[in-house]
Design goal:
Blueprint: H1 3-11, E1 12-20, E2 37-44, H2 47-60, E3 63-65, H3 82-86, E4 91-100, E5 103-112, E6 117-127, H4 131-147, E7 157-163, E8 166-172, E9 179-181, E10 189-194, E11 200-205, E12 212-217, E13 223-227, E14 233-238, E15 244-250, E16 256-262, E17 268-270, E18 278-283, E19 289-294, E20 301-306, E21 313-314, E22 321-326, E23 333-339, E24 342-348, E25 356-360, E26 362-366, E27 372-377, E28 384-389, E29 396-400, E30 407-408
Parallel strand pairs: 2-3, 2-4
Antiparallel strand pairs: 1-6, 4-5, 5-6, 7-8, 7-30, 8-9, 10-11, 11-12, 12-13, 14-15, 15-16, 16-17, 18-19, 19-20, 20-21, 22-23, 23-24, 24-25, 26-27, 27-28, 28-29
Helix pairs in contact: 2-4
Length: about 425
């Protein structure tokens, strides 16, 4: 088992809930551009955990963290909220860190200052070296306590990042503060895709001179060739049940078609039949449909078909539409649209209605909760990874990175 996953498996020793009440402060994350709720974070411990929690809460875009220099006290007195109301706090988070043997323990309490009541109390324990896992879990729990939605920062992303003359598959925390290179092929690797259980990555590598699809086992560190040989393989996408991978492959004459590979039996089935480009499959969360890109109508547009290739329906009508990403909620399909020389992230319902712009950018990727998206903006050294909400209304820079297609794991690591 490779080191990073072993650390994650044994690092999170205990995350147990001691009490949870319903928060009176309700934050509507469906309202773009809404006011951010002032939050005071009183932390006693190492700066590492405090830094990550603050960053994650800021990236959610719904909290306004109060500068600790404005605090009137460095300790919380039970039942006394006057000092926190005075500085405008509506939420108070009090967390204390301690070292117990080889473990780091954080006890956190979250208060609704407006109502003067505790809404969450929880203890987190990890092995030394995995403190960031506590930070992500705490930030996600705070988010859930006041929105009712699952958090996003405990779930890693995968992407191919430029390394030397090529690109390598890399996993990263969604806040950009931690990353680990997975492949070391010394060539171009691209389009990583998480298996639904978070234990495998499918990706494309040119290390044998061809564009072949491999599966990498995160527990053993071993890889195996899934699809190779003649033609160029691209854009692997796992089915929600984890058994199949849809992908694009060029056949005779350079025609790109979408195929379905059974990862257990090795049998494949061709899904599309059109002399042109059919690529970039993206599954519906129920596994019954696939969104994809095709130029069968002229320029590339987004289409939807049943999982057996039947009932092909066109969804978009822009000048150049690519990179479909089906929301985990099933309600929206995000995609990139080139308009007047600029790419924009747009969303459309699976029946082709309510098509709208979210933000300027390309290559969208949904968070597991279906409420946020990661995407790119810019080129080369100016290329950056950004976060926005499903309602649009702005974006926040995660980090400058010259990367390729992003995939967000739906499993906690």
């Amino acid at each position: 088992m490779i080191t990073w996953l072993k650390g994650l498996l044994v690092g999170v020793l205990c995350l147990f809930l001691t009490s949870t009440l319903q928060a009176m402060v309700y934050i509507d994350i469906n309202s773009p551009g809404g006011n951010r709720v002032p939050l005071a974070f009183l932390y006693h411990g190492s700066p590492e955990i405090e830094k990550v929690v603050r960053r994650d809460l800021t990236l959610y875009g719904i909290f306004r963290l109060i500068n600790p220099q404005a605090f009137l006290t460095e300790r919380f007195e039970e039942g006394k909220f006057a000092d926190w109301r005075t500085i405008g706090a509506e939420i108070l988070v009090v967390a204390d860190e301690s070292l117990k043997g080889g473990n780091v323990d954080v006890t956190a309490r979250v208060f609704d200052v407006v109502e003067g009541q505790e809404v969450l109390a929880k203890e987190y324990t990890v092995q030394v070296g995995w403190e960031r896992m506590i930070a992500h879990a705490l930030a996600d729990d705070i988010f859930k306590a006041f929105t009712g939605e699952e958090g996003i920062f405990s779930y890693p992303i995968s992407l191919a990042i430029k390394k030397g003359k090529g690109k390598e598959v890399t996993i990263m925390d969604p806040d950009g503060l931690w990353e680990k290179q997975i492949t070391h092929d010394g060539c171009i690797t691209q389009s990583p895709s998480w298996s639904p259980d978070g234990k495998k990555l499918a990706y494309v590598s040119f290390k044998r001179g061809n564009a072949d699809i491999y599966i990498y086992d995160m527990e053993t560190g071993k890889e195996r060739l899934l699809v190779g040989g003649k033609g160029a393989q691209s854009a692997p996408a796992w089915s929600p049940d984890g058994r199949y991978i849809a992908y694009s492959s060029t056949i005779k004459g350079g025609n790109s078609e979408i195929f379905l590979m059974d990862t257990l039996t090795g049998k494949k089935k061709r899904l599309t039949y059109y002399y042109g480009i059919d690529t970039s499959p993206s599954w519906s969360p129920d596994g019954e449909q696939i969104a994809f890109v095709s130029d069968r109508s002229g320029a590339p547009h987004i289409f939807v078909m049943n999982r057996d290739g039947s009932h092909v329906t066109r969804l978009t009508y822009g000048s150049y539409d690519v990179s479909p990403a089906w929301s985990p909620r099933g309600d929206l399909i995000a995609y990139s649209s080139l308009e007047n020389g600029r790419y924009y992230i747009r969303v459309v319902t699976p029946d082709g209605k309510n098509d709208r712009i979210l933000v300027e950018g390309e290559s969208p990727c949904w968070a597991p909760n279906g409420r946020y998206l990661l995407f790119y903006r810019g080129l080369g050294k100016d290329r950056g990874l950004f976060l926005t909400s499903s309602q649009g209304g702005g974006s926040l820079l995660i980090k400058q990175v010259d990367g390729g297609r992003i995939d967000w794991s739906g499993k906690y690591h």
